[in-house]
Specification:
The complex is a heterodimer of chains A (292) and B (401). Chain A is an all-alpha fold and 292 residues long. Chain A has a single domain, classed as MetI-like (MetI-like fold). Helix content of chain A is 74%, strand content 0%. Chain A has 13 helices and no strands. Chain A has helices at 9-34, 53-61, 63-96, 101-113, 116-127, 133-140, 154-179, 183-191, 196-207, 209-225, 228-233, 246-256, 260-291. Chain B is α/β, with parallel strands linked by helices and 401 residues long. In chain B, 44% of the residues lie in helices and 12% in strands. The longest helix of chain B has 21 residues, at 2-22. Chain B folds into 2 domains: 25-137 and 296-324, 3-Layer(aba) Sandwich (D-Maltodextrin-Binding Protein, domain 2), CATH 3.40.190.10; 138-293 and 336-394, Periplasmic binding protein-like II (D-Maltodextrin-Binding Protein, domain 2), CATH 3.40.190.10. In chain B, helix 2 links the parallel strand 1 and strand 2. Classes of the chains: A mainly alpha (292), B alpha/beta (401). Chains A and B meet through helix 12 of A and helix 3, helix 16 and helix 17 of B.
């Protein structure tokens, strides 16, 4: 009876909708408009209309912007392979053990509950050249101190904690997906002669493909938005902007350079890229899943 | 029961409103007297004194001064959420965007002639008006841990040759010669490298085109590269942070650091007689050996929003007068360091032929970010030339058309 007349439900939906409109969609639309105008400082109003000038500058005139885009795309690929990949392997292993599964759930999920700033600080202490944990180990073993955030190593060093932090998140999601696969299916497969890896490949993975697609979509959108960890570990894209991602570069351009219109354009690029890539991945893997 | 509860709430609301009205107005303030700033406590006490004397309330949102703080203050102005009284940068690129939302001191003095607020010409803006009242001068120079120089039998770096000798020796014994993070705060060394490479007049230039950029500005960038090649900086100079390098200096793991009077306030009390400040040694022959950077860069403002509010105007003006009184100036404008450090700062100031303003404060934000964060690290390690650096910066018209 309650759901026959759905009009009262609007009362419950409306507040959150209004909040979304005011705090998310309205600023987003303003941001789109801002990206087409010259805005000189954080306080300045929109001045001259410059059309697609900021977008042209991003793709054709700003080497650092292209580098931050490349870094983001590489991180995205690494995220799918390592975050989701390692989480899948761990989830398969933990789901196969009879005792201690709960322990591993907690252990792998733990980094998620630590703030990214704290993890960033922890890793910057690991990487510190003077007195850093890694160099203390290296020197204790008789080696020479290593510059962990050098030009050629910095990207990998920043990517490692970013990848590490969210493995547990996808691990828990995949493990939950695995728990939904009926034991009957495995028993039938065993009767048909399927064992070990064959069971995983032909039964488990197809049956949790929806969960994997969701994980990959989340991983890709998460990689595009990455900001907090890199900005703590490598301030201002250190060294020399080589560890800038779209999020950190957008922050630097908007709040330090106060190139507000350009920062707006970068944020629009982040959103468009996120939507396009996550939809593409979803569709590609979704179709594969249907064929399977 | 519900009716009684509702009635109770209504009575409480009326009482609260009445109390709020009886307590006077509430003023919002913002300053950089917070965090590790040695004047933070004195500033809070000044606000409490004002509250006690007037019955008004002050909601203060002070925070440590950095780029994020500046951005948040400007953001508040942009969305109409500016405070009533604030302590902020003046007479430079940071203050330009807020001038139409703050009140010139002359206008306040005209309406309140008894106050006779200071109109310090040093803080005159481009439109010829003064909007801020200064409370604390600043200076920048080369901080030196003299005990490390004594320990290794080195002369203080009063000229370039002695600086090079010290760098070589400190490298040998595993002490970082100059503590700096080029990826975080390259601001001070960049200015001093240019002062060391040419005349004060060249440092005072505000070139509009690439052709007008003085040769010493190129030479200064090359000097940073030279220092890098000599091993004057820590190995991770392009990746560490200013917090780390400053701590190294305070812990005597680094021998020198270029910084300002705010840094002196944070030197440990035990080091007051083993740390001094002096002018950075010059490299070019025509450079002035006594020149240092200093002046007044911040002041107290009254916002137009408070001025136009008849209920707040008197209270806000009174707070401005209170915070800029002679008594307040000694409490929040004074230095907290002592000993040889204090004496050396007087020597540096008193013996100087030139006190120069940092030219980066006159640059547009975009050009300054490009110069400091987009160039210095790369010029230092040789992956960008000084010429390419200034071409990139000057394309952004740092000092206007």
């Amino acid at each position: 009876m309650l759901y026959r007349d759905r009009r009262p439900l609007i009362v419950f939906v409306l507040p959150s909708l209004l909040l979304m409109l005011v705090l998310l969609y309205y600023p987003f639309l303003e941001n789109i408009v801002n990206s087409f105008f010259e805005i000189r400082t954080l306080v300045s109003p929109r001045e001259e209309f410059i059309g697609l000038g900021n977008y042209r500058k991003f793709f054709a005139g700003d080497a650092m912007a292209i580098l931050s885009l490349q870094n983001t795309l590489v991180l995205m690929a690494l995220t799918v392979v390592f975050q989701v990949g390692i989480a899948l392997v761990l989830a398969l292993l933990v789901s196969a053990i009879r005792r201690g599964a709960q322990f591993f759930r907690v252990v792998y999920f733990f980094p998620i509950v630590i703030s990214a700033t704290a993890i960033g600080l922890m890793f910057s202490l690991f990487y510190a050249y003077d007195g850093g944990m890694l160099n203390q180990i290296v020197t204790a073993l008789g080696g020479e101190k290593v510059l962990w955030l050098s030009d050629d190593k910095a990207f990998v060093m920043v990517a490692i904690p970013v990848l590490w932090q969210y493995v547990g998140f996808y691990f828990v999601i995949i493990l939950t997906g695995l728990s939904g696969v009926s034991e009957d299916v495995y028993e039938s497969a065993e009767i048909d002669g399927a064992t070990g890896l064959k069971k995983t490949w032909y039964i488990t993975l197809p049956l949790i493909s929806d969960v994997l697609v969701t994980c990959m979509t989340l991983a890709i959108t998460g990689a595009i938005k990455v900001f907090d960890l890199p900005s703590v570990i490598a301030r201002n894209g250190a060294p020399k902007g080589l560890t800038h991602f779209l999020g950190t570069y957008m922050y630097q351009k908007t709040f330090i350079a106060q190139d507000v219109d350009y920062g707006s354009a970068i944020s629009i690029i982040i959103v468009v890229l996120g939507v396009v890539l996550s939809r593409t991945v979803g569709r590609l893997l979704g179709r594969d899943g249907e064929r399977g | 029961m519900k009716k009684w509860f509702a009635l109770l709430l209504a009575v409480l609301m009326v009482l609260t409103s009445a109390l709020a009205l009886a307590d006077g107005v509430t003023l919002k303030t913002v300053s950089s007297f917070a965090g590790t700033d040695a004047a933070a406590d004195a500033y809070v006490q000044l606000l409490k004194d004002y509250e006690a004397a007037t019955g008004n309330k002050v909601e203060d949102a002070s925070a440590t001064s950095d780029e994020a703080w500046k951005a948040s203050v400007l953001n508040d102005f942009a969305v109409g959420n500016e405070p009533d009284v604030l302590f902020f940068f003046a007479a430079n690129a940071d203050s330009a965007p807020i001038l139409d939302k703050v009140v010139p001191i002359s206008e306040i003095n005209e309406a309140y002639p008894d106050l006779n607020l200071t109109e310090n010409a040093v803080l005159t803006e481009a439109d010829g008006k003064v909007y801020a009242i200064p409370s604390r001068p600043f200076w920048e120079g080369l901080f030196v841990n003299t005990d490390l120089f004594e320990q290794y039998g080195l002369e203080l770096p009063t000229d370039w040759a002695k600086l090079e000798t010290a760098i070589a020796k400190f490298n040998e014994v595993g002490i970082v010669p100059i503590a700096v993070s080029l990826s975080d705060i390259p601001h001070y060394i960049s200015e001093f490298a240019i002062i060391a490479s040419g005349t004060p007049q060249e440092h005072m230039a505000r070139p509009k085109t690439l052709e007008e950029v003085p040769q010493s500005w190129y030479d200064g960038m090359d000097l940073i590269h030279k220092l890098y090649e000599m091993g004057a900086f820590a190995k991770d100079v392009n990746a560490t942070t200013e917090a780390v390098t400053s701590q190294m200096f305070k812990d005597k793991k680094a021998a020198m650091q270029i910084d300002g009077s705010w840094f002196a306030n944070g030197i440990p009390a035990a080091n007051m007689d083993t740390t001094i400040v002096m002018p950075f040694p010059t490299y070019a022959e025509d450079a002035d050996k006594t020149a240092f950077i200093g002046g007044v860069s911040m002041g107290f403002y009254l916002t137009r929003k408070a001025w136009d509010d008849p209920e707040k105007r008197d209270a806000a003006v009174a707070l401005l007068a209170h915070l800029t009184s002679a008594d307040a100036a000694t409490k929040i404008g004074g230095y907290q360091f002592t000993g040889k450090l204090l004496a050396s700062s007087y020597d540096m100031i008193n013996n100087a032929n030139y006190m120069l303003s940092p030219f980066q404060d006159s640059m547009t934000k975009e050009a300054r970010e490009t110069w400091l964060l987009g160039c210095i690290s790369s010029v230092a390690d040789g992956s960008m030339t000084a010429k390419a650096c200034w071409e990139k910066v000057m394309a952004l018209k740092p000092f206007g058309e």
